[in-house]
Structure formats: C-alpha cells, structure tokens
Amino acid sequence: MTPLKPSPHVPRQDPAGYPEVHPPRAGRDGAGTLVFLHGGNVGNWMWDPQVQSFADHQVLTPHLPGFGARVDEDWEGLDSAADDVAAFIADESANGTVHLVGLSLGAVVGLRVLARHPELVQSALVSGAVVDGVGAAVRAAAALQLRLWDSEWFWRLQASAFGIPEDGRRLYTDHGLSTRADTMRAMLDEVYAGGLPAGLSGYAGPLLAVAGQREPKLVARGFPALHRELPQAQFRLAPGMHHAWSIEDPLLFNSMVRAWAVHGTVHPRLLPAPGTNNS
Hints:
Layout: E1 21-22, E2 33-37, H1 48-53, E3 59-60, H2 78-92, E4 98-103, H3 105-116, E5 121-127, H4 136-147, H5 152-161, H6 166-178, H7 181-192, E6 207-212, H8 218-221, H9 223-229, E7 234-238, H10 245-248, H11 250-263, E8 271-272
Parallel strand pairs: 2-3, 2-4, 4-5, 5-6, 6-7
Antiparallel strand pairs: 1-3, 7-8
Helix pairs in contact: 2-3, 4-7, 5-6
Pfam families: Abhydrolase_6
Domain AB hydrolase-1: 34-252
Keywords: Hydrolase
C-alpha cells in the first residue's frame, strides 16, 4: 500500500488546515481544473495523494459544509452543499468548467452539482455513490457509529478497518472527533434515503461511475437507475478495492482520473459492471 505523503502546504496533524486551492506546480495546466469532493468521515486532506499526483493542474479540494475547516457549520442538505461547491468553483476555477471527482458523500454531492449546475462541469467521475437507498443493517451500523462518536478508540478502529495508512490515522481520528454527531446524523439520513436529484438528465457531459469490487453491493445496485437518467454514463468496478480506494490504491485511482479527465477514456484495469450497458 502506498502511504499518504504529507502535503508541503500544511502540517498533517491539522484536519482543518488542508488548503482548498492548489495552483499547478509543474508550470502548466495540462487539462483544466480538477475538483475533488471528499467523503463524509474525512476532510479534504484525504485528497493529498491526488494533489501530489496532479501537480500539472489546478486542483480544488473544497471543505464541504460541516467538515474539515467548517465543522462548526450546520448541515443544510445535499442541494445546499452542491450549491456551495458550485459557488466555490465559480470563484476559484481558473478554467471556467471543471473535471469533477467525488467519492462517497462527495460522489452524492457531485451528482447534485451535475443536476443543478451542469454548465460548470466538463466531465465527472463518481465512486461509491449511494443512489438506491440502504437497508436496515446499514442503518443499524450507522446508529451504532453515532453512539460511539466521541470515543477515540472507535475512530482508531475505523482508521484500521478502512485501510488508512499509519501516518494518516492520527489525522483521521482527530477529524472524526472534531465533526459534530448531529452533522453526521443529518447527512446520513439524507444520503441513506437514496434517490437521484431532479434535473440530473439535463447533464449532457461524460460521467464515469465506479464501485469498489469489494465494497457493499448497494453502490453498484444503483447503477441501472443512474443509467436511466444518464444513458451516456460508463459504469465500472475497481478490481479488489473497498470503499475508500483513493487511499487504498492511489496509483490506480490517480491513473483512472487522468485517463478519464485528460484522455476521455476508461482505465483498462477497471472491470465492466454486470447489469449495465458496459458489461
């Protein structure tokens, strides 16, 4: 497993201090601006391996409301989060439109951005998006998680279970303890209800939807509904990967993003998703 490399911009122990705007450091902007939307148990610092890999691009890693540097803010809903991201893109993108990448919560918010602000998105890639709702077992696990929210040992256990590298586990734990339980409860209630946003079919650009081959099947189960709204979408499985595979295998994840955003192609190591037009 490739470890997370520390950012040159911010101490790794500060979950609220990771920058949101990363200018191209290699002297050129190879294929426009990349926007990475983080998951719900983490902050924008989760994208450090991607920021390091895409030094030839402007990269934006916004803090979503209620997370990272914004833990004191109330969760106002997925639509509000999408509008927040759109405003950030409009203010900070050096290229007008962007290549949007989201994982987990970031993937669900990303779909809302496509529905509400399609003019801002040149291409999109979402991984781990729950669009079909979740069952009782997942909800029970989430309820248990919320009861243990203030326990440091719980976050350490989560870090190990998710495959967070050793040098990132302190950061993951500190961020989890800093995030408000009521924020997480409100967000999970909305995400777990499932459903696709109104107006999503109005997005005409390319979309790649991915599920880790070893993450819960409920993610891939939502692919047919997504295909009905966006028939141009491509669907794939990341071989052997779990939910947070941007950290689990950053080399493959980064290669996938580069293939899709820069070349408009699907990385050849990704597997066809059964039951879709790509199978």
